Amino acid sequence: xxxxxxxxxxxxxxxxxxxxxxxxxxxxxxxxxxxxxxxxxxxxxxxxxxxxxxxxxxxxxxxxxxxxxxxxxxxxxxxxxxxxxxxxxxxxxxxxxxxxx
Length: 101
What we know:
The chain is an alpha+beta fold.
């Protein structure tokens, strides 16, 4: 696993460790090294779980477009219902949905 230069992961909540471990395995299965492009930094929508340490963005640009949904499904299978995995055009967003607690 790599961390994009400038990405802030210090302060991620312990629940995000499960995401990083699962994503690392899924990316390896598809022949790529996981790159975490953001954690707590960057600009996100108001109220984003990024700002609270409950979300990460994962690079997908090295995968062909039609594989993104497949990778997201695989990641969802690795996680439980407390997590949301959302496919964006440039990355996959994964978050621990605190509201489900």
